[in-house]
Amino acid sequence: MTNLYFAQVREDPLIELDYFSGISNGRFFTIASGGCTALSLLLLKPAEIVAADINPAQEALVALKAAAVRRLGAVELRNFLGIAPSGDRTDVYQEIRRDLSIEHCDFWDRHLDWIAGGIQYAGRTERFYRVLSKILRLTIHSEACIRQFFHCRDMESQRRFYKDTWCNFRWRTLTSAALSRSVQARVFPRVTFAQSDERDLGDYFYRVTERAFQDIPIWENYFLSQIMLGEYLDGPRGAPPYLQAENLDVLKSHINALRTLRKPLHEAFTEIPTGSLDGLALSNVFDWQSEGDRERTCREILRAARPGARVLYRNLVASPSLPQFFIDQIQWDESRSREYQQMDRAFIYKRLKVGTVLKKGDSR
Q1: How many C-beta atoms surround the C-beta of residue 126 within 10 A?
Q2: Model confidence over 73-121: pLDDT tens digits?
Q3: Contact (Cβ atoms closer than 8 angstroms) between residue 5 and residue 55
Q4: Taking a C-beta distance cutoff of 8 angstroms, is the pair 32, 52 a contact?
Q5: Structural domain spans, the chain
Q6: Which one of 46, 120, 122, 342 is CB 3.0 to 4.6 Å from 114, fit for a cystine?
Q7: DSSP state letters, 83-111
Q8: CA quadruple 208, 209, 214, 220: dihedral sign
Q9: Helix (H/G/I), strand (E/B), else coil: 312
Q10: CA–CA separation, 121 and 123 (whole Å)
Q11: Residue closest to 315 by CA, chosen among 283, 345, 289
């Protein structure tokens, strides 16, 4: 697996930052993916963040973004990533690569075209959404109409715009067709939806998108603006926290706390000392794993986590069963889980769970 599937993380890092807030000098484990969560967690001023991924491209991406954070100013960082126009990204890379390992240099030297085009949009997911955005603007709503939608500033006007202007037959048809299982299978690895509970993925994604348009403030939802316009929004919540200029100094001062691992999840945990982790942001990795790998991962989580450590994971369209010993060893906070799922600007996940690890010998 060497394809870059995700140049951005489609998970709301404000949830991780809120759930892990108050952990002083903590040690965290997260999934590398597009790096947005791992880099944003640096705002907690941690002792360590381990970002692991089985995919060499995803792990190398986080290493490159971390090197860019270390070397560049706020404007230069956005230009290099592809958020703003730039004609010298490969030249900037020559400066950044001095902070990369030989292995990472070799990887990126072979993918200079991704860098030249802006790595923030180099993933298969981002390329897919850019096609959707083009279709949307050519066949359903003009760019002016889309921007008018994002200019709504209260939920009443947002819902009214959605019902009166946005939600027409062509929009419903595009959403259901473009996000169907047959289309998604051409974009994502087969294992992504292998354990799906949803018979009709197009219908599922239409329903969750409809909720996002009506229940989540659109004027600060950069997940929607990335899909519909291919860009971030203005304002303090219009981009991932690590891309906010006012946060860059904190990121730079703690960037050495971030390290990446290129290993399957259950193997990556073997490099984590027993009882050392304070927080684990596990994305939706359980959706991808076999039953055996889930069991091995859950055992490693309980070994590596200290009592009281906070655990957060998501499920996309699957409900994989977790080992009973794991379920019993965590105090799940159902109320907070529901609260986070309702506020999640990424909106696509059918489940978000948070809980704290109990002391050894204790169980629910």
Answers
A1: 23
A2: 999 999 999 999 998 999 999 999 999 999 999 999 999 999 999 999 9
A3: yes
A4: yes
A5: 124-228
A6: 122
A7: SS--S-HHHHHHHHGGGS-HHHHHHHHTT
A8: positive
A9: strand
A10: 6
A11: 283
